[in-house]
Design goal:
Elements: E1 3-5, E2 8-10, H1 15-26, H2 48-64, E3 68-70, E4 80-83, E5 92-99, E6 106-112, E7 120-126, E8 128-134, E9 140-146, H3 148-160, H4 171-181
Antiparallel strand pairs: 1-2, 3-4, 4-5, 5-8, 6-7, 8-9
Helix pairs in contact: 1-2
Length: 189
């Protein structure tokens, strides 16, 4: 049985899937990479380069076994993310996404992040959101999301603004997460 913790699927992978996951994670920027703190720019050209970028994001998302991936996580400062609102369907790409109707109700739940390996911390999010964006071909998109898909979309929107789950958690959880992320000294004898 597999569970989902924030942005990271928690399931056992076979050897080949685990190898693909490691290769994908090697291409995803890891904290404290400065690109993760930068605000992405609006996409202006809906062209072949954009299509190729979205395809790369989708492949990395799939291989990394994640639920969402923002372009800033691969060092591309454009307002694009891909996510899987329905695990039974293909990933959805949103270009220039905006949160337009967040619900009043908020819910705290544990989240992980492909850019903060080993960290799972509580984050409070809107239970329901409406996101407006463009498709990869420039068509208008409007999604009404609730539950986990709403959480994932908010997480990825944060990435496009240079905000990490570390910024949205409690002081205690932040301290614990930073201890996990802190490079460990290597002792040489």
């Amino acid at each position: 049985m597999s569970g989902e913790t924030g942005q990271v699927r928690d399931e056992k992978l076979d050897a080949e899937a685990e190898a693909r996951r490691r290769v994908a994670l090697a291409q995803i920027r890891q904290y404290p990479d400065p690109a993760l703190r930068m605000r992405a720019n609006e996409v202006e050209a809906f062209d072949e380069a954009l299509t190729k970028l979205v395809e790369r994001l989708e492949h990395l998302l799939h291989d990394a076994n994640g639920l969402g991936l923002a372009s800033t996580q691969i060092g591309v400062l454009q307002r694009i993310f891909v996510f899987q609102p329905d695990p039974e369907q293909a990933a959805v790409a949103l270009v220039n996404p905006r949160l337009v109707e967040p619900s009043e109700e908020r819910l705290a739940d544990d989240e992980g992040c492909l850019s903060l390996q080993g960290v799972v911390i509580p984050v409070e999010r809107h239970e329901r959101v409406t996101v407006e964006a463009k498709s990869v071909t420039g068509e208008d998109v409007r999604l009404e999301l609730e539950g986990l898909p709403a959480r994932v979309a908010q997480h990825e929107l944060d990435h496009l603004d240079g905000i990490l789950i570390l910024d949205r958690t409690t002081a205690e959880a932040r301290r614990e997460a930073l201890a996990i992320l802190r490079p460990q000294p290597v002792l040489i004898r």
